Amino acid sequence: MLALFLAGAAIFPLASYVYAVADARLVAPNARKAEVTSWPRERITPDSRPRVFLTTWMNVGGSIAKTLVELDRFERSYGLIGDDWYSFERIAGSACAAPHYNALSLYRHDETRKSTACVSVTKVGRRFDIFPQIAEPHLRLLTDEAAPSRHQNGGTVYSSSTLELRLISRDHNNLVSFWEAPYFDAPAFPPIFMYRDMDWWRKSFEGEHSRRPEPIKFVLDALGNT
Question: How far apart are CA 103 and CA 111, in angstroms?
Fold first, then answer.
């Protein structure tokens, strides 16, 4: 009887560990993939394409916003350059010298603040003091912590690199396109038990995902031929 009790006491932690590993490595990633696939997405059409774009991207947000106006995809856009919000507006009747997209334009930081023959640039506020208020429908590119869908995970994804495009208006806030590189927590080997938390010691791992899209290409793909 004692031998059976000891055998059970030894098997239970092992079974618990195997279950926790299977749940984290197999169940959670597949459930997250199915969840993301199931989200309804708004299709941008020539009739629904907004005239305005905004991105909260911290590093190259100004370059993204300005380039999309230069490409004539939007009439006006907003982006961050350092801690400042800038607006970029297409000058009526003008034609940009380089109408085709070039990824290198993202790295011309010194030129982003300058108006050109086809785009006017205006500083509109500080990041910590004001957020551009846009009354009309617009597309908004959100990243990482700012992406709301990143947090719709039922606790299975603890972190991720995220790109999210949303169509926002006074009455709607709809998902257009979404990409993530999700991270999960899985019990580590050797299976060291953490008594205080009543859980296994865990390590993070990156779930299966496609290559991170280049941000402007991400927006252009969502717009399609509109």
Answer: 15
| Whole-number Cα distances in Å, 201 to 24, 31, 58, 84, 185 | 13, 22, 34, 42, 10
Residues in CB range of 225: below 8 A, 6 or more apart: none
What is the 3-class SS of 51-88, one letter each residue?
CEEEECCCCCHHHHHHHHHHCCCCCEEEEEECCEEEEE
Residue type at position 175: L
Three-state SS annotation for 5-47 = HHHHHHHHHHHHHHHHHHHHHHHHHHHHHHHHHHCCCCCCCCC
Residues 51-64 have pLDDT tens digits of: 999 999 887 899 99
Dihedral sign for Cα 60, 62, 68, 74, please: positive
pTM of the model as a whole: 0.83
pLDDT tens-digit series, residues 98-115: 556 665 555 555 678 888
Q: Which two tokens stand for residue 132?
A: 């551009």
Q: What are the C-alpha distances in Å from 17 to residues 21, 189, 197? A: 6, 10, 15
Short-list 172, 166, 133, CA closest to 149: 166
CB of 137 closer than 8 Å to CB of 42: no
